[in-house]
Amino acid sequence: MLTDFGNIFIFILLAAVFVVFAIFLSSLIRPARPTQEKLLTYECGENPEGSPWVKFNIRFYVIALIFLIFDVEVVLLLPWALAYKSFGIVGYLVGFTFLFVLGLGMAYEWRKGDLQWDRPKIVPPVLDIKKFDTTIINGSEPQKKASVL
Questions:
Q1: For the CA atoms of the chain, what is the radius of gyration?
Q2: Are 109 and 115 in contact (CB under 8 A)?
Q3: Domain locations along the chain
Q4: Mutual orientation of helices 58-75 and 77-112 as an angle, nearest 10°?
Q5: Are 40 and 48 in contact (CB under 8 A)?
Q6: CA–CA dist 129, 144 (Å, integer)
Q7: CA 107 distance to own-chain centroid
Q8: Is the pLDDT of residue 110 over 50?
Q9: By the 8 A CB rule, do 116 and 57 touch?
C-alpha cells in the first residue's frame, strides 16, 4: 500500500508522462509548413514595426494593479455574503468594516485620479500681450506704449 505522498507522486508522474506523450504525438500528427508569416514574433496579420522594447505609460500597470487589488477583495465578499448570518451581528460588522475600508480605498484612488484612463493635459497659462498693450492718443495718431511681458 502506498502512502498519501506516494499517491501524489504517482499522480504527478502520470500527469508529466501524459503531457510529454501529448506533445510528442502532436509533433507527429501536425503539418510542418513554416512560412515567413508564421515565423514572425506575432502571428496577427500585422507586420511588426520598430523595437519590441517600447516604453509603456505607467498608467497601464497602475490600473492593472488597482483592478487586481479590488477584484480580489470583491471575490472575498462572496463567502462572507453566504456565511455572515451564521456569525450574527459580529459577522455583519466585520463585513461592513471590510466594505467600508474597500470604499475608502476606492474613494482615495478616485480622488487621486488613478481611475481615469486619460488625465487632462495641464495647459500652462499664456500671457496675452495684446491685452496689455495700451494706446495713448496724442492728437490724432495713437501711439503704443511698451508691452508688458
A1: 33
A2: yes
A3: 1-30, 56-118
A4: 150
A5: yes
A6: 12
A7: 18
A8: yes
A9: no
Q: How do beta strands 141-144 and 135-138 pair?
A: antiparallel
Q: Whose CA is closest to 115, among 50, 63, 44?
A: 63
Asked whether 72 and 105 are in contact (CB, 8 A), the reply is no
Which positions ≥6 away from 132 have C-beta within 8 Å?
A: 147, 148
Q: Residue 129 in contact with residue 148, Cβ under 8 Å? A: yes
Ramachandran assignment for 128, one of left (phi > 0), alpha (psi -120 to 50 degrees), beta (any other): beta
Residue 77: is it exposed, middle or buried by C-beta count within 10 angstroms (0-12/13-18/19+)?
Answer: middle
pTM across the whole model: 0.42
Q: Which of 19-33, 49-63, 79-93 has the highest mean pLDDT?
A: 19-33
Please give the angle made by the CA atoms of 90, 101 and 81, to the nearest 5 degrees: 45
Q: pLDDT, tens digit, for every residue of 64-99?
A: 888 888 888 888 888 888 887 788 888 888 888 988
How many residues does the structure list for the chain?
149
